[in-house]
């Protein structure tokens, strides 16, 4: 979804969600979703991963990203003079509260059936805001070192406890407690990638101690494919996400939403 003509935005944005091999084999729909909205000054990107064990998670992920794109953009537009720092964290938390309330109001007593993760990025003049609940992730492209592009993985949300790998959902009790927010101010940022956990094995490397970092070859190729739009940009991404190579790494649904800064004249 987009709010205005993208030509007004300094960012070129593109992404999609595709069903994983397991869902294709079982004839089930994709339970991931992504959405974005842009204006001349602010862009909001959101991805969500519906809980596979819940009967209406496909609807939940779609509702979550639509509400996030709308409410985070509204909050950011109302805070045009917001500066990097604590004010951005408050803006993100307030927007999450709006989304959570509207989501629970819309789903009512059956909210748990719509369980989904949510990861959001707000791109505003002078800062980038990031909020996540669940296991989505965000990679930034920012600057160069010795002529090589540099990529940075933003911190992810905590698990439900230090002893658990259980994913926290938008509908989880006390979900706000597990929300993670970031504010980044770096004029070198010219690329942002959001994804659900279906691409963890492809997009991230895990060190011996368990720490995650961007898989440079994968994320660099994904960003570069959007730096210059071609007639097959959409088809190319679809083919990548459904490729045997990625399916062999993870059979889950896959979402990739990316934004690159347009070349300045």
From TrEMBL:
One of its GO terms (molecular function) is protein serine/threonine phosphatase activity. SUPFAM superfamilies: PP2C-like. It is an enzyme of class 3 (hydrolase). It comes from the Bacteria. Keywords: Hydrolase. InterPro entries: PPM-type-like_dom_sf, PPM-type_phosphatase-like_dom. Residues 20-241 form the PPM-type phosphatase domain. It comes from Streptomyces sp. R41. This is PP2C family serine/threonine-protein phosphatase. Its EC number is 3.1.3.16.
